[in-house]
């Protein structure tokens, strides 16, 4: 079996978690499966080779897709370098996370629609993995998203609000189901060098809070909020550290906040997704703005507070019956500090952990159902 995964890469840790969640499940079911990622540069080619992936050679510039460039390479060289052609793909997973809706350019949906058309002609099974969608008030976003979702063999949607948005597209099939984020089943790995961080509260910043907000003073608001929360935790006698779940942009935010603190706190930047999840597993709590850091914490029964920038945070916390633990970026200082104070009361923490244990089991059972559908209904 030849399986291509689209939309999940390595720089974004959430995307990498999605990538390996699919890889691990496919390999568990089909040990000999060839896992393919597209690449358009020598650097990408070398990285994918190093990580053991097969490659599909392509190049894309804006709306223009140069197509399957691997066909220009002799078969002997393709086989030697583990290069796969489009017409050799048996299954295609779209794991974009959140790429289709009015917050994004319609070109993303247009590109996916064109890809789905070609793959459908080849007989490739097309599966859209759980992700956030919408809204679709812009004509082109509506048109192209509807187009590729209609071509899919099965569509999984990550939250109720996204499901409502997709229902309004009036798809011509019913192979669509609400399912939670599938990275919850990804295993964690403990690393002894992080033992000293057990029972810390981790602060996970997100540069997108600043870049996507319409508030004029968003950078000041966000940095002041996290600074004030850290100072509050210190007053409560709780140890805190920054945990970088993304890249250099998030690291710079942590540095900016540290420069405003009377005493800097540690910045932890672990690149391995399994060890990153292991750090979260040992946390006392997590205060985060990165979606998949919150998926990792909630699904491991770690009490969590979200500072979110889209509906996906609200929907995630509703799945775990803990939506009261979302803080809006423009909340008054005393309001969010009172929430922090209440959140870390002993009885509240015990109740949170018990609630998360119960709801985590429910969500993980749903993900098992998702893979049953993939293997028994779509790929059987």
Automatic annotation (TrEMBL):
InterPro entries: Polysacch_pyruvyl_Trfase (IPR007345). Residues 12-311 form the Polysaccharide pyruvyl transferase domain. This is Polysaccharide pyruvyl transferase domain-containing protein. It comes from Flavobacterium rakeshii.
């Amino acid at each position: 079996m030849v399986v291509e995964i689209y939309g999940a890469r390595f720089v974004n840790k959430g995307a990498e978690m999605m990538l390996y969640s699919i890889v691990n499940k496919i390999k568990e079911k089909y040990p000999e499966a060839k896992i393919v990622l597209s690449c358009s540069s020598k650097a990408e080619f070398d990285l994918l080779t190093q990580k053991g992936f097969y490659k599909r050679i392509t190049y894309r510039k804006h709306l223009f897709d140069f197509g399957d460039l691997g066909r220009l390479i002799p078969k002997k060289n393709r086989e030697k370098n583990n290069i796969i052609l489009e017409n050799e793909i048996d299954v295609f997973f779209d794991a974009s996370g959140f790429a289709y809706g009015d917050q994004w350019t319609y070109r993303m949906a247009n590109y996916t629609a064109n890809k789905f058309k070609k793959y459908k002609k080849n007989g490739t099974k097309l599966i859209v993995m759980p992700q956030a969608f919408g809204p679709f008030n812009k004509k082109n976003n509506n048109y192209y998203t509807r187009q590729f979702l209609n071509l899919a063999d099965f569509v999984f949607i990550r939250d109720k609000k996204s499901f409502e948005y997709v229902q309004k597209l009036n798809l011509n099939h019913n192979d669509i189901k609400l399912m939670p984020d599938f990275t919850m089943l990804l295993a964690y790995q403990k690393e002894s060098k992080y033992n000293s961080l057990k029972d810390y509260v981790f602060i996970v910043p997100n540069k997108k809070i600043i870049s996507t907000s319409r508030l004029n003073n968003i950078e000041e608001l966000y940095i002041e909020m996290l600074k004030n929360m850290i100072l509050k935790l210190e007053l409560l006698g709780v140890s805190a550290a920054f945990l970088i779940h993304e890249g250099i942009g998030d690291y710079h935010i942590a540095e900016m906040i540290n420069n405003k603190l009377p005493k800097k706190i540690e910045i932890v930047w672990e690149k391995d997704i399994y060890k990153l999840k292991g750090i979260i597993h040992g946390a006392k709590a997590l205060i985060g703005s990165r979606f998949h850091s919150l998926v990792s914490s909630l699904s491991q029964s770690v009490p969590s507070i979200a500072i979110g920038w889209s509906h996906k945070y609200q929907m995630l916390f509703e799945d775990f019956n803990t939506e009261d633990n979302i803080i809006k970026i423009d909340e008054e200082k005393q309001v969010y500090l009172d929430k922090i104070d209440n959140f870390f009361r002993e009885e509240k923490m015990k109740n949170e952990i018990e609630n998360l244990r119960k709801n985590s089991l429910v969500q993980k059972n749903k993900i098992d159902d998702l893979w049953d559908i993939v293997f028994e209904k779509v790929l059987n």
